Amino acid sequence: MTVTAGPAVEGADGRRTGPARAVVTGVGVVAPNGIGTAEFWAATLAARSGIGLLQRFDASAYPVCVGGEVLDFDDAALLSQRLLPQTDRMTRYALAAADWALADAGLDPAGLGEYDLGVLTAGACGGFEFGQRELQKLWGTGPERVSSYQSFAWFYAVNTGQISIRHGLRGHTSVFVSEQAGALDAAADTARLLRTGTLRAALTGGFDAPLCPWGLVVQLPGGLLSTSRDPERAYLPFDADAAGYAAGEGGALLVVEREDTALRRNAAGIYGRIAGHASTFDPRPGSGRPPALAGAIRGALREARTDPADIDVVFADALGVPDRDREEAAALAEVFGPAAVPVTAPKTLTGRLYAGGAALDMATALLSMRDSVIPPTAGTRAPAPGPGIDLVLGEPRETPVRNALVVARGAGGFNSAIVLSRYVRSPHHRAVTRPA
Amino acid sequence: MGGDAERRAVITGIGVRAPGGVGTEAFWRLLVSGRTATRTMSLIDPAPFRSRVAAEIDFDPAAEGLSPEQAATYDRATQLALAATREAVASSGLDTGRQDPARVGVSIGTAVGCTASLDQDYQRVSDFGSHWLVDHTATVAQVFDYFVPSSIGRDVAWEAGAEGPVTVISTGCTSGLDAVGYGAGLVRDGRADVVVCGATDAPISPITVACFDAIKATSANNGDPAHASRPFDRNRDGFVLGEGAAVFVIEELAAAYRRGARVYAEVRGFATRSNAYHMTGLTRHGREMAEAIRAAMRQARRDGADLDYINAHGSGTRQNDRHETAAFKRSLGRRAYEVPVSSIKSMIGHSLGAIGSLELAACALAIEYGVIPPTANYEEPDPECDLDYVPNTAREQRVDTVLSVGSGFGGFQSAAVLCRPPAKAVAP
Amino acid sequence: MSGITLSQLVSLIRDCAGESDVADLDGDIADMGFDELGYDSLALLELSARIKQTLGIEVPEGDMRTPGGTVRLINDLASGKDA
After folding, report:
1. Which residues of C touch B280 (CB under 8 A)?
2. What CATH number should be reported for the domain holding residue C14?
3. Lesser CB count within 10 Å: N end or C end of chain C?
4. Residue C1 maps to a domain
5. Of A80, A85, A149, which is closest to C21 when you measure between CB atoms?
């Protein structure tokens, strides 16, 4: 009953092989700079930013007034009217992205066994705007005004539950909460459940959307949000002028399947595979011990059986807070050598999306792999002094991407790293493939 | 799989903060006595609410060793988790200073996180709901920690000296089972040697009470708080909101024996499935919970005949109790009628995400002490719930294999199997 | 005075539980079951709360089967109260 190895896969030629591999066959995105994968990817390569002055509410009286809002999402066109009163914005994004990811994968849940499909999402703060509205009713009018939907629309598990209901996914479902890092842990757990045979396919990723007045206000005392009133200068990770980050909303969902399942149903395309993951936690401040980020990166490389030299791009966490950026650069330099690997942070075009951030980075990394191009980091100009990193700036860099590392750090000390690898068909699966 | 390489996850430390008394011993005494810890709400003014009963903890942060700053700024859910963590680590006898911190992980469940503190913050920043554009100068310094409940995972990690995989699992009312299932998985598949796992919730706040009022999920038996939580009883009228935390130290079996640890139980099986049916509703047939039970039993390599006790979700809502009764029959067949089934929510209420871990603590203690806790307030059978619910009086009986189940909003259906640990002589 | 018409009830439904996905609420829906129209128990709890807030009349969600029946229930209760 060990969880690691799982049942061996039987290849088409009858040979027993290693544990099943987890491949990504579908992507769904809702981001401030693009709704849908194609729009997002085009905007990302063109360095079109979704960060602007906040428009949904009047933020002029707050010390922070920029962020990455999703402004053109037509929920009434995308979702049933019955869902609208019972969902926060972030759940609507998640439901649309789930539809798109499944469609992209060409996966009909009805084609698999009843308990073969699961949902593993990450969430950082729940349906916060919905929560603000209900608290406003509770204290402004009285408890009898609180919606019956409040019992689930705010809580952290809501997206997994709603996605599972929408598509009839009855397998293993879960929810990871570790601020920005959870989506990598969710994807990695998905891969493990696929390997052990608990699942054959799953939706994994994350969404958050706390850009409402109170969602902004609760982030102010921490002092990590940029107070710049210029959207182009608000989020400059690794820059000498870095002074915090811009908040954003949105995220991504991926369809991940066992390789044998994807091939058997002749999946249209495979973006890549989840090759390795590890997560660590930073020591308590004052312990004198070093941060644990490098350990997570090494662990992910080890599980992926990939040498640092074979990583072609790193999607950095890129907090935009100078000492945290230095820490991340130092960890990358420690594992890869100084400036030895291209590093990018396309999240400079969206702001940080909480649980959605690392999910979107995974989607972006897979698109990089598909198109052999690394999207640039926007905004950053003059790199901060410190450990050198080869930050991709200005223009997309065309280069084959065989293996990508995605790094995510969650407030408080969560570190997570995942290796995504270009998909090459396992030799024992050749016999099942049909000519195109 | 099997073989020498198989790693087994065992519980070597337990810490509990539950209504009815401080610590694991007081918790167990309450459960075997069949007394109830439900009462009229005192943590908040109950007057405006439909349901005014709760199972509350008389929690004293100073007596727990929390600093005045922690007492003033940490959400109650975090405080309960820290107190339970300290007790769990102490009871394990593990010298955390001698562990490699990179091999220590944390998996903490919570359904609503720091909602109570967020509710209080909202009263300040909105001036009791009078501004939508809330006043940023009125918020408190630590509000970000309430905003992201992952802060609970951080605080437990710091307390336990964990620098390995740390996560918070939030799957509604199955969080406490799912966090332990995930934590045991970390030990079994070698990603950690020690995992501090469990769950916490302190949901007795106006917003949470109001939202359960809105769907009439909680008991309105306000005139008789001690008898308000009535799982499986014909006259049940909803669950009684509770609060609490239970935390375990889970280690690899061989290492636990090597250091001479007391081993309470092995976490042998865990599975979760989703009903994909309704965010709050349950089916009559219980098929998905039955599937979770079968999968957990399969993983544990146990069958119905091995089961000595089922710790039910038993929330006391009309739909839950018949749903899981159907699930037990569907998964265990005739054996469902023979195995004792009880709900400790009858005594300590329903602490949302925390309860799954509190129930696992009760299961581990049932194995340890050979006693099955009863279902309190069980007076009149419901024809749709016709199993042996261990009415009102604890039962002394050897317990080797226990199944614990949970259901959560969002459709989550989870099952875990705990077993008596193997004798040291046959340990690998 | 505190009674209600079908179209007023329909506007309360739209407001608290959302437009039906399966039927035109402006059409002939008076005798269709709420379940047929796609409204679950939570939607009816919302509607019941909304009726209480706007009309001061308590109609338990379990008593609401169809929009037309609910209008009759409300109006019976309203005239009883007025009498």
Report:
1. 42
2. 1.10.1200.10
3. C
4. no
5. A80
Overall domain count for chain C: 1
Give the torsion sign (CA, A399, A405, A406, A411): negative
Q: Give yes or no for C33 touching A (CB within 8 A).
A: no
Residues of B with catalytic roles: 173, 313, 350
Window A:27-86, CB contacts with C under 8 Å: 80-86
CATH 3.40.47.10 fits B9-114+149-419, yes or no: yes
Query: B148, B170 in Cβ contact below 8 A?
Result: no
CA angle B140, B144, B147 (to 5 degrees): 110
Chain A residue numbers with beta carbons less than 8 Å from the beta carbon of B130 are 140
Closest listed residue to residue B249, CA positions, set B263, B233, B231 = B263
- Cβ count within 10 A of residue B160: 27
**pTM (2 decimals)?**
0.96
Contacts of A133 in chain C (CB under 8 A): none
- Domain residue spans of chain A: 22-264, 275-425
pLDDT at B5: 65
Is residue A426 over pLDDT 90? no
The answer to whether the CB atoms of B133 and A192 lie below 8 A apart is no
Distance, in Å, from the CA atom of B403 to the CA atom of A178, rounded to the nearest integer, reads 29
List the CATH code of the domain at A275-425. Answer: 3.40.47.10
Q: Provide the shortest C-alpha distance from residue A353 to chain B (in Å).
A: 13
According to DSSP, residue A291 is labeled: P
Give the model's pLDDT for residue B159.
96
Complex confidence, ipTM: 0.97
Domain that holds residue C26: 6-77
Pick the CATH number of A22-264 from 3.40.800.20, 2.60.120.620, 3.40.47.10, 3.90.1150.10: 3.40.47.10
Across the interface, whether the CB atoms of C49 and A144 are under 8 A apart is answered yes
Per residue in C34-77, pLDDT (tens digit) is 999 999 999 999 999 999 999 999 999 999 999 999 999 999 99
